Structure formats: C-alpha cells, structure tokens
Amino acid sequence: MTADKRYQEAALALAYNLDDAIKIGGNYTPLLQDGNHLYVSGQVPRVGEVVLITGAVGAGTSLAQAQLGAKICTLRALTLLQRTLGSLERIKTIPRITVYVQSAADFTQQSEVADAASELLHSILGTAGRHSRSAVGVLQLPKNASVEIDLIASIA
C-alpha cells in the first residue's frame, strides 16, 4: 500500500476533512522548498475555520485530546507536502519535527503528546517517517491551540 493510500485511511479514521485550503494567518508561506528540503510551518489542530483542540494540556485538556490534536497537526503537514509534491511517495526522510504543547504548570508528558505524531508519521510513511524530534512545553500557542507541530521533509 502506498503512503498516499495510508494517508487517506488515516484521515478517514480521524474523520476530519482536510480537503479545504489550509488557512494561514500572516505574511508567510505554510511550506517552503529549498532544494531537496521542504520546511513546513507550524500547524495547529485546525479543520476549516475551527481550532479543535484548545487550552492547556493538564488543565482542562487531557493527554488523549492533545494526542488527537498532534495527529491533526501531522495530517495538516502531510496534506501540505502531498499537495506540493503530488505524492507522499516522494518523501525520502523526515529528518526533524518539533512538537509544541501548551502545558499546565505541572504537566510533564510532552513526549507522550509527540508520540502520537511520531507514530502517525511512521504508520503513513514507513521508514521515511522516522525522525529526530523535540517536544517542548510552552505557556501559549496561536489561537489557544493545545499543540503545534512543524517539520522538515527531504526528497530524493
């Protein structure tokens, strides 16, 4: 099964439609290609006009909700890559992802939130989805999002 097919199945399993345009909120590009590297700007768990997972994780937002948010962010990033490349099969590696988690003062499971993104990348891209990563707790994120993810992809 191709990475594109696994992507479609993952999107259907989450039951979120990402067919619409990926909305950005400023004077930047959501994806920039420089040679064989593609830099995907930070993605929040927005579907259409709505950021679905908001608030501080550990204070009103659960770990499970944040993990769902991480999956939505990851699918948004993959959507941008697929639209740019024509196929996710062109991805050679994902050398790096950064996962930002809006965290309550005593929340320390940022890496478990990031695990949801890592697992989804690997399940869709196979070994090309293996990556290095950082999981960072922060006080606030844009639009009160619970999670934001950026990544770098390389193509052959």
UniProtKB/TrEMBL annotation:
Residue span, Endoribonuclease L-PSP/chorismate mutase-like domain: 15-152
Alphabetical list of Pfam families matching this protein: YjgF_endoribonc
Protein name: RidA family protein
Organism: Undibacterium parvum
